Amino acid sequence: MAEPSDAPAGAGVVIVGAGQGGFQLAASLREAGFDGPVTLLGDEPGLPYQRPPLSKAYLKGDAGIEQIELRPAAFYTQHRIILAHGRASGIDRARRRLLLEGGASLPYEHLVLATGARNRPLPVPGHELGGLHALRTRADADALKSALAGTRHVVVIGAGFIGLEFAAVARALGHGVTVLEAASRPLARAVSPDMSAFFVEAHAAMGTRLLLGTGVVGLAGAGGRVTGVEATDGVVYPADVVVAGIGVTPNVELAAEAGLEIANGIVVDDHLATADPAISAIGDAVAYPSRFAGGRVRLESVQNAVDQARCLAARLVGRSAPFEAVPWFWSDQGDLKLQIVGLAGPTDSAVLRGDPASRRFSVFRFRDGVLTAIESVNRPADHMLGRRLLAGTPRITPAQAGDEGFELKSLLTR
Question: Tell me: the pLDDT tens digits for 249-268?
Fold first, then answer.
């Protein structure tokens, strides 16, 4: 890599992290008319790609690498986006230089940290055995795809989004699947008890064995490879392949070592700026103020990263506005599409709309009579309406939400 000039003037925007947020920022800067240099630094080989399909279409073989790449190589050339491969090792804030492993550095006028998050390691004896997999990168998915050839027993540790999405794919591929979840219900951090109960039944119908309140104490192995998972119930569950999906840790080390504030993520204001006016941050590693959370929050969401990237791009070309996008999420599990809009608290009430037995229903969440979130299964109209309602002041009552005869669209014309 050529060593740029020491002077930051004309150095443009340097983005650390070539995931969905980093890519979107680079693309949005060009869409917004930014004409200076844009450098996108990633530590994975190849072109930037989408992560959500890794646990679904890519793993099943329904999509290849070309289908999950965010754009072909020609896009970056056409839009004068420099793709740099490497790993950042530090930030010289005084000189405005991003330090890279190997001794090189990049000057910047504005630095954006889109560093994302990494999977939490499984902290039990036997974690070094072959056959234990994570699922976050394309390399992870490639390794897992190879491991599943001929596999008969798969154990998934963790019944969050990734764990359940993978479990559905593994069952569709014909493998026996056991999911171990330490909590009392699946997706406990993300959805209501009603929605959790629905997915317990849905995965049972797929043929998955889902064991709740069951943690992991160790992995059994022979010849350096995993043969089973020892659980807190005293049972060793046979396993040819183990997939751990026990959450993520935000990648804040670069920011922390540079002296930026960290509090469950890189702390930014409502314009996504850190305390250093030359450094901003977006995506899964960022803790930002949100009216939907009633305070600072860090969200692990593709859409959140994309929305923050667009907001920041506008600020960097002089069209500054606070970040106020409505948070929304989705998860595909078999033929079920779960969509969530808003942020509900653990004590928010739940109002059912539709019949879960039909596999098309929604759960409306309320706090003190005010709508906070909508969880929908195979009911996209409710989800889209929720995005519009929550963007303003939601004028819907629990009684209206639960009344299938009430036309929800009428709320948008009042």
Answer: 999 999 999 999 999 999 99
Domain boundaries, the chain: 13-118+249-316, 121-246, 335-413
What is the reported pLDDT for 151? 80
Neighbours of 54 (CB within 10 A): 25
pLDDT tier at 150, thresholds 50, 70, 90: confident
Identical fold between 13-118+249-316 and 121-246: yes
pLDDT in tens, 201-235: 999 999 999 999 999 999 999 999 999 999 999 99
User: Which homologous superfamily does the CATH classification assign to the domain defined by 335-413?
Assistant: FAD/NAD-linked reductase, C-terminal dimerisation domain (3.30.390.30)
Cα atoms in the Cβ-side hemisphere of radius 13 Å centred on 236: 10
Q: For residues 103 and 89, what is the distance between their CA atoms, to the nearest angstrom? A: 9
Nearest 5°: CA angle at 234, between 229 and 240?
20
Domain 13-118+249-316 coded CATH 3.30.160.670: no
DSSP 279-321: EEE-STTEEEEETTTTEEE----HHHHHHHHHHHHHHHTT---
Question: The whole model's pTM is what?
Answer: 0.94
The answer as to CATH 3.50.50.60 being correct for domain 121-246 is yes
